[in-house]
Amino acid sequence: MLESEKFKSRQNRKCFAYIIAGVVFQTIIILVFALTVMRIKTPSVRLRSVTVDNLNYSASAGSPFFSMTLNAEIAVKNKNFGHFKFDHSTANVSYNGNAVVGYGDIIKGRAKARKTKKMSVTIDVTSLNTGVSVDTAKLSNELNSGNVTLTSLARLRGKVTLMKVMKKKKTAEMNCTMTVDLNSKAVHILDCE
């Protein structure tokens, strides 16, 4: 009888050890899942490419100006395991950091999980009638050099949804600087932060 009790006791200890090992293993799996998949990251917004149409400018010292149409491809990169649904927004183009010289509409959309959504945005840009004073001497010098530096800013507000249960508000921001070559009528430097 003593032998069978030792055998049962040993089997009970083994069973208990297996249960503890299973619980520890499941806890590790759940923790890894929660720290990787369930962590919501902020999507990124970048200008992928920009083409220039209808370029017109004058570098005269009295009243320098430029006007053009920028056709931009914007990419919204979603690094999450759930989709990012964003609202209608605006891309602003400014000259010299403070003078907004153009606007473009970014339509509302949805970037699928772990994908990049590409969109086209047309922005009419002009230094005339902006309502903000532009340093005419600096603009004239820049136009004479053959290059104009512009900054494009956008903010996309939306929600990331994981497994149709978890929703978290996120704001993706774009800050890109581009240099337009007036002679070739093209953007030759495009840098996004």
Describe it for me?
The chain has 193 residues and is α+β, with helices and mostly antiparallel strands. It contains two helices and ten strands; from the N terminus they run H-E-E-E-E-E-E-E-H-E-E-E. Strands 1, 2, 3, 4, 5, 6, 7, 8, 9 and 10 form a ten-stranded antiparallel beta sheet that branches. A hairpin with a 4-residue loop joins strand 9 and strand 10. The longest helix is centred in the N-terminal third of the chain and has 35 residues, at 2-36. The model has no long low-confidence stretch (mean pLDDT 91).
SSE blueprint:
Layout: H1 2-36, E1 44-58, E2 65-77, E3 83-86, E4 89-95, E5 99-106, E6 109-111, E7 116-126, H2 136-145, E8 147-162, E9 166-181, E10 186-192
Antiparallel strand pairs: 1-2, 2-7, 3-6, 3-8, 4-5, 4-8, 5-7, 8-9, 9-10
